[in-house]
Design a protein that fits this description.
This protein is 72% helix and 6% strand. The chain is mainly α. A two-stranded antiparallel sheet has the order 1-2. Helix 1 packs across helix 2, helix 2 crosses helix 5 and helix 5 crosses helix 6. The chain starts with a helix and ends in a 5-residue tail after the last helix. The mean pLDDT is 91.
Length: 126
């Protein structure tokens, strides 16, 4: 149940990033609500997989940069994970489109903040 709640929070965060950042958009084959929700769900699953599989490796390899920048390099890592998600979903006619590095950084910041705020409101089972 916690996994579904976390995926829902990530979906809301990605949707808000696409709504607020000019360089991020969600492409759908049809402009219906159901189609948009299905595409956001697929993007969320890809984003969760990228964060679970790739992000820990990138964090370990970039540990010196994280230390030297006092943690600010984590914003770059978040942007790269969002960009990688866009590249993976960009192989189809629908998915996430990110235009430029700074749009990815701003989207990563928004996704991190929304995840943090909604994570505080939704308690863990721990």
């Amino acid at each position: 149940m916690t996994l579904l709640i976390r995926l829902l929070i990530n979906g809301v965060a990605i949707w808000l990033a696409a709504a607020w950042v000019t360089g991020i958009e969600i492409k759908t084959p049809e402009d219906t609500t159901q189609s948009k929700l299905l595409v956001i769900a697929a993007i969320t699953v890809v984003f969760a997989l990228v964060n679970a599989l790739v992000k820990p490796i990138v964090k370990v390899l970039s540990f010196p940069f994280i230390v030297v920048s006092l943690g600010l390099f984590l914003l770059v890592i978040n942007a790269l994970m969002l960009w990688l998600t866009a590249k993976i979903t960009g192989t189809t006619d629908y998915g996430l489109r990110v235009d430029g590095f700074w749009a990815a950084v701003l989207g990563g910041i928004i996704i991190s903040l929304v995840n943090w705020v909604l994570g505080v409101l939704v308690p863990d089972e721990d």
